[in-house]
Amino acid sequence: VQLVESGGASGQVGGSLKVSCEVSEYTDSGFCMGWFRQAPGKEREGVAAIYTTDDSTYYANSVKGRFNISQDNAKSTVYLQMRNLRPEDTAMYYCAITTARVCDHVSITFGERGQGTQVTVS
User: Fold this and answer.
1) How many C-alpha atoms does 58 have within 13 Å on its Cβ side?
2) What is the spatial distance between Cα 72 and Cα 18, in angstroms, rounded to a whole number?
3) Which of 43, 44, 18, 36 lies closest to 104, judged by CA?
């Protein structure tokens, strides 16, 4: 499986950004997909996850109510819409996929990942 992220950019505090992840060999059956982020000198932090079978979504408390994860089966793409951005959202954002029994923003941090896309908020 290949994961290719795009959409990372510089944004303003309070603004919005949307990052995308195109997935090769995409299937809407039984996979957990999501995003985690890592800022320089900090540990990996799970952000959001979606169970592709039923669209169940899971969020870290730090982004709940501001970020929304979604999938487009026809485009084999998973999105992360980020609103009300904060400086602490600055990080490299990685798309990931896992078949772990539990799908949530924590398990996604251990998944197979893409190359990442940089989000900078100032």
Assistant:
1) 19
2) 14
3) 36
| Mean pLDDT by groups of 10 residues along the chain of 122 residues | 92 97 77 95 96 93 97 90 98 94 93 95 96
What is the 3 state secondary structure string of 59-85?
Answer: ECCCCCCCEEEEEEHHHCEEEEEECCC
Residue 5 has which token pair?
């992220």
Handedness of CA 1, 19, 85, 57 (dihedral sign): negative
The runs of H, that is alpha helices, within the chain are none
User: Residue 16's closest CA among 62, 68, 70, 81?
Assistant: 81
Q: Which residue has the tokens 């026809």?
A: 74
Separation CA 56–CA 90 (nearest Å):
26
